[in-house]
Amino acid sequence: MAAVPFRLVTKTRVPAVEGLFTEVEGVAHLIGAKVPGRESYFFPAHLSGMAGGDPAAVGAELEEVLLSPTGTVWSYTTSSYSPPPPFVANTDPYEPITIAAVKLEKEQMVVLGQCTQGITPDDLEIGMAMELYVDVLHEDDDHEYTVWKWRPVTGERRGGAGGEN
Question: What is the pTM of this model?
Answer without folding.
Answer: 0.79
